[in-house]
Design goal:
single chain; Aldehyde Oxidoreductase, domain 3; TIM Barrel; 6-stranded antiparallel sheet; 6-stranded parallel sheet; 14 helices
Length: 346
């Protein structure tokens, strides 16, 4: 392969040293060079090269362990961009069924085999996050869903997770890099920290309106100091029509955000002539809870751990042809699997 030098041998692995003054996440160059692969792919490379078979033309297929929504193919395209391999895939955002072939790769095995670990990990994690986001969005319907999950994962994967959430159907995300990778602006209000430092919700709300860029929707947390409905009406009185929404993120120690709380708040806002003020709910949001919260009056949802903690969708790569000859491990069917939905990726 050209352009990127990858790990060549067990000798190189044994001599590899890691600097102590670093974050533990792999950077782009370490992934592209193959340092995140399983060791057996380096052993495989050495054996095939020793036997003169490294450049065997193979066709490999990736299939899924359960149904879901596909994400991660843009990263796979970048990962394999300098291998010379040809790649076909389902488009990102497409649903897939259990055991469906979602990707096919053709080329000399030595050019891309080292990337199997990274490729499967990208697809498995990203598709798990995208699937969870789709589940929330399907429950929410036309209500906005914002991914707030970055704080629940390692920062190295936070932007990957939030981009995948947008691919899955989330209307926005809070992680700056994740939003930019998804081609959108980051979305978010301000945390309880600023209210606790300032000491008054209304003072923060007025400062938010004054100091944020023109056109920024004014969305204010109302559960820091007082009864949520009382605080919401105080903020409404201070900001009037410029208040876009209030956010509920009531602590679990106080029962969290309940259907009853949302219903009461919606009623009190309407009675006060503040029907334009929307209610954004965050904290423990799941598809099962969304339906009741919408019926009570919720307009939007900030979703964290349901998306960020989603189970990865197992992906498996099998070689199905070697030099034009159908092959497979026992229990699998030799030869290329019909997959008419695949489109050319590389």
């Amino acid at each position: 392969m050209s352009g990127v030098r990858t790990v060549e041998s067990m000798k190189e692995v044994n001599e590899f040293k890691v600097k102590g003054d670093r974050l533990f996440s792999a950077d782009n160059s370490e992934i592209m060079q193959g340092w995140t692969t399983d060791i057996y792919f380096i052993k495989t490379r050495e054996i095939l090269r020793g036997l003169g078979l490294a450049d065997s033309a193979v066709t490999a297929e990736v299939f899924t362990g359960r149904e879901g929504i596909l994400a991660g193919t843009a990263e796979v395209r970048e990962l394999l961009s300098q291998t010379g391999a040809q790649v076909w895939s389902l488009p990102e955002g497409e649903p897939f069924s259990s055991r469906e072939v979602i990707m096919r790769i053709c080329g000399p095995y030595d050019s891309f085999g080292i990337y199997e670990t990274a490729l499967l990990g990208i697809l498995a994690s990203s598709s798990g996050w995208a699937t969870a986001a789709r589940e929330i969005k399907e429950a929410a319907g036309d209500r906005r869903v914002i991914c707030f999950g970055a704080r629940h994962v390692h920062p190295a994967v936070a932007p990957v997770m939030e981009r995948a959430a947008v691919i899955g159907g989330a209307d926005g995300c809070s992680c700056i890099l994740g939003a930019r990778l998804a081609g959108i602006n980051p979305t978010g209000t301000v945390p309880h920290a600023v209210f606790l430092v300032v000491g008054d919700t209304v003072e923060v709300a007025l400062a938010y309106k004054r100091l944020m860029p023109e056109g920024t929707p004014v969305v204010v947390l109302v559960d820091t100091f007082k009864d949520e409905a009382e605080e919401a009406l105080r903020v409404c009185g201070a900001l009037g029509r410029s208040l876009s929404a209030i956010r509920l993120d009531t602590a679990s120690e106080r029962g969290g955000v309940t259907v009853g709380l949302v219903r009461e708040l919606r009623a009190r806002l309407d009675q006060a002539g503040r029907g334009h003020v929307q209610i954004l709910v965050s904290g423990g949001v799941t598809p099962d809870r969304v339906t009741g919260l919408i019926e009570a009056g919720a307009d939007a949802f900030g979703v964290g751990s349901y998306i960020s903690g989603a189970r990865a969708i197992d992906m498996t790569m099998d070689i199905k042809e070697v030099n034009g000859r159908p092959v497979a491990k026992r229990g699998r069917i030799p030869g290329i699997t019909p997959a008419p939905r695949l489109v050319k990726l590389l």
